[in-house]
UniProtKB/TrEMBL annotation:
UniProt key word Lipid metabolism: no
Residues covered by region (Disordered): 759-782
GO BP annotation list: carbohydrate metabolic process; glycoprotein catabolic process
Residue intervals of the Glycosyl hydrolase family domain: 291-758
Signal peptide span: 1-25
GO MF annotations in UniProt: carbohydrate binding; peptide-N4-(N-acetyl-beta-glucosaminyl)asparagine amidase activity
Protein name stated in the entry: Sugar hydrolase
Pfam families to which the protein is assigned, alphabetical: Glyco_hydro_92, Glyco_hydro_92N
Organism: Dyella jiangningensis
InterPro entries tied to this protein: 6-hairpin_glycosidase_sf, GH-type_carb-bd, GH92_a_mannosidase_put, GH92_N, Glyco_hydro_92, PNGase
Record-annotated Glycosyl hydrolase family 92 N-terminal domain positions: 34-285
Any one GO cellular component localisation term in the record: cytosol
């Protein structure tokens, strides 16, 4: 089991109230319960800086941008345990297991200027500065810190496309702002292919850079303005005589030009001794400098930092008001911070004129047959299809409409003609497995989301599911499985493709496309080709049909049959037909016994040292990684929902805490957090693209969901405490509910789900076959 340290950081939080000017700007609304520090330590990989729901800007401090061999811990640019800051950049992933971004890094400097970041272990060796957590204020939409080496108070807030800065410099010292276009999270030599920097006559600074990071050939442009006139400015190329297209870098000499090009550009902007704070506003664009200026003109008017901070706070209060809970303060912090993290991605990736950059690298307009829409990217689809996107469907279906239109637009501008796999700023990385944009679209459609072109959506889904060059799909379509002698991680790919196929079939059925539904219903049964009844595990077969030998169910990682997991974790991945899996494993008792063995095994976490993402261990169960996320709910399908209730409490107690290292693994763009939200409410979407949620047990006394259709749905529980961990009975709108699943339509119709809790398990409630969530093989009986 992952052990989480003590709350040694709380005194620093309490000290904030004693520092002048550091108190929260407001105490109303749910943003007051958000602590963006959660996940910034350990392997959570979240960032503490300023952003708005699904915004393009993530303006946040960076403590390190290490080379790609050491970048994992700093995937969001910031680690809570660090003691110095490199500066503040405008783009970040939240909770990803991979790193990139960190664009447009700025650093305010008082006094002498150093042009390179220096060594964190040697204070004063560069422009980075030490800081103390006692001076940080970390809130939804706002971040502040004092840079102790300069005596500069830095404050950040954000709009949808604009990052707002306010820097208060010590009296009498010359004020400078350094702009460094070299650093990038996941940095390595040659990361910046080319960049340019320009100072316009009106003092506006613009530029672009092209990088070859996780998404090769990514271009990002910016426009920057200052509230005070420039006293002087100097542009530098820090290249050391490296030729590029006939250009030979001038080394470390400053260039007295209005514009400069190269691969290692730095700008220093001087303001003299200031008597008032310096305001800086920055817009970004994935398309061009001209578009960045247009974004700045449209959304960056004026210099009222406090008003922009209040707007960001109001945006979060509005978004978080979708759920009201009654819970103790610490639980409120965990809940609303989880909801905050679940509403960060996908991010806006379109300029005010409607232009976006597609996976083909070209510029496109965000318009389809239904009119204009807002294009979003940053899709960790292997993660977010499970719970984060279903949460958006439940709470904000209008957002889901835009997201699906974005997925379809990405497919239509892709040179491969398929939906995104893991994309950001419109570009594809091909990271992870499956074609999980398919269940995202299907889940939304099945649950009533409209406003997108369903025909185009289904066409995109079929195209993705039949693109033979992708991940062994050609062999999968011929053999019914992905052969391990031709494609790595064949067992995982077979299982995930089969589920995606089932979700596609559900949408086809709902649209009356019976021929398509029949094809993919058949493919949905391909999970059986991975199941080995002799060992009781899912395994990879070779082209000749035999299972690969030798077999070790404990083995995990690349080169094995599985993706970021082992047989103990992946053998349960048949969300579309858990009833058939129960039968294959020998029936209810055998299934429960084997599932118990997952949670109760004695496992040394060191065995997964070579697989960074397998964390949060409870036996073999790894809550820090997504393949395990549905396991605790599977007892519902075998007539033992009281076991689900037991395991959920075990997970909630050990894998989440309201402190910087309070996430047991990568938040993965909100998936870990969305799991928490659903579980706290008492139900979970084990099978997205079904209209059902498996019932667990609630972890808040009362929660009211304010739904997109204007109705409310309330979940209540009594008595709710550690002495009453089990469900005794459930009522829906005052009537007994004897089944362990809830339908989406029952939620959006409004009403109340009430749990009566008790000290001992109720082994009869929800245990009968007709009380269990629906599976593919049991659907005809319903």
């Amino acid at each position: 089991m992952a052990r989480l340290p003590s709350r040694s950081w709380l005194p620093a939080m309490l000290a904030l109230s004693l520092l002048p000017g550091l108190a929260a700007a407001a105490t109303t609304g749910h943003a007051v319960d958000v602590d963006p520090r959660i996940g910034t330590g350990g392997d959570g990989h979240t960032f503490p800086g300023a952003t708005v729901p699904f915004g393009m800007i993530q303006l946040s401090p960076d403590t390190a941008m290490p080379d790609f061999k050491h970048a994992y811990k700093w995937a969001a640019g910031y680690q809570y345990g660090d003691s110095s800051l490199l500066g503040f950049s405008h783009t970040h992933f939240s909770g990803s297991g991979h790193s990139d971004l960190g664009d447009v890094l700025v650093m305010p400097i008082a006094g002498d200027v150093k042009l390179d970041p220096g060594d964190a272990a040697q204070p004063g060796s560069g422009y980075r500065s030490r800081f103390n957590h006692n001076t940080e204020v970390v809130q939804a939409g706002y971040y502040a810190v004092t840079l102790s080496d300069y005596g500069v108070r830095a404050e950040l807030t954000a709009g949808r496309r604009i990052g707002w800065h306010r820097y208060t410099f010590p009296a009498g010292k010359p004020a400078h702002l350094l702009l460094d276009l070299r650093p990038s999270i996941y940095d390595y030599p040659g990361k910046v292919l080319w960049s340019h920097l320009r100072v316009h006559d009106d003092g506006t600074v613009t530029g672009c850079r092209t990088t070859r990071g996780w998404a090769p050939g990514r271009e990002l442009c910016f426009a920057m303005r200052f509230s005070q006139p420039l006293a002087s400015r100097t542009l530098y190329s820090r290249e050391t005589d490296v030729p590029y297209k006939g250009f030979k870098g001038p080394g470390y000499q400053p260039e007295d030009h209005d514009a400069l090009e190269g691969r290692a550009l730095v700008g220093v902007f001087d303001f003299g001794a200031l008597k008032q704070p310096l305001g800086v506003k920055v817009a970004i664009s994935p398309v061009s400098e001209a578009n960045a200026i247009a974004n700045l003109d449209a959304e960056g008017k004026g210099w009222d930092f406090d008003a922009r901070r209040a707007e960001a706070r109001a945006d979060w209060d509005k978004a978080l008001a979708s759920i009201e809970i009654d819970a103790p303060k610490q639980d409120r912090t965990s809940f609303y911070t989880s909801l905050y993290h679940a509403l960060l991605s996908p991010t806006l990736s379109m300029d005010v004129n409607g232009q976006f950059r597609g996976p083909d690298g070209a510029v496109h307009e965000a318009v389809d047959k239904n009119g204009k829409f807002e294009f979003h990217s940053t899709w960790s689809l292997w993660d977010v299809y499970r719970a984060q996107q279903p949460l958006v469907v439940l709470l904000m279906p209008e957002r889901s409409t835009d997201f699906i239109r974005s997925l379809i637009a990405a497919r239509e501008t892709s040179p491969f003609g398929i939906l995104p796999v893991w994309a950001y700023q419109g570009l594809e990385t091909w990271c992870m497995i499956g074609y999980h944009a398919v269940p995202v679209i299907a889940d939304a459609y099945i649950k009533g989301v409209r406003g997108f072109d369903a025909e185009a959506g289904l066409k995109a889904m079929v195209a993705s599911a039949t693109y033979a060059p992708y991940g062994g799909l050609g062999d999968y379509m011929k053999l019914g499985y992905v052969p391990i002698d031709k494609e790595p991680e064949g067992a995982s790919k077979t299982l995930e493709y089969a589920y995606d196929d089932w979700s596609l079939a559900q949408m086809a059925k709902a649209m009356g496309k019976q021929d398509i539904a029949a094809t993919f219903d058949k493919r949905a049964g391909n999970w059986r080709n991975a199941y080995d009844p002799k060992t009781g595990f899912m395994r990879a077969r070779k082209t000749d049909g035999t299972f690969r030998e030798p077999f070790d169910p404990d083995a995990a990682g690349y080169g094995t049959d599985y993706t970021e997991g082992n047989a103990w974790q992946y053998s349960w991945y048949v969300p579309q037909d858990v009833a058939a899996l129960v039968k294959a494993m020998g029936g209810d008792q055998a299934f429960v016994t084997k599932l118990d063995s997952v949670f109760e095994a004695k496992v040394d976490p060191a065995r997964f040292a070579h697989v960074e993402d397998i964390t949060g261990l409870i036996g073999w169960y790894a809550h820090g990684n997504e393949p395990s996320h549905h396991l605790a709910y599977l007892y519902d399908y075998a007539g033992a929902p009281w076991q689900t209730q037991k395991r959920l409490k075990q997970i909630m107690d050990s894998q989440y805490a309201a402190r910087p290292d309070g996430l047991a693994g990568n938040d993965d763009l909100g998936q870990m957090s969305a799991w928490y939200i659903f579980t706290a409410l008492g139900f979970y979407p084990v099978t997205p693209a079904s209209d059902e949620y498996a019932i667990g047990r609630p972890f808040v006394k009362r929660a009211t969901l304010h739904l997109g259709n204007g109705k409310t749905f309330t979940v209540s529980a009594a008595p709710l405490d550690d002495k009453h961990p089990y469900v005794g009975s459930v009522t829906l709108n005052g009537k007994p509910l004897d089944r362990v699943f809830l339908r989406h339509g029952e939620i959006v119709a409004g009403g109340e789900l009430h749990f009566t809790m008790q000290a001992e398990p109720n082994r009869s409630w929800g245990s009968q076959p007709d009380a269990r969530p629906t599976s593919m093989s049991s659907a005809e009986r319903r």
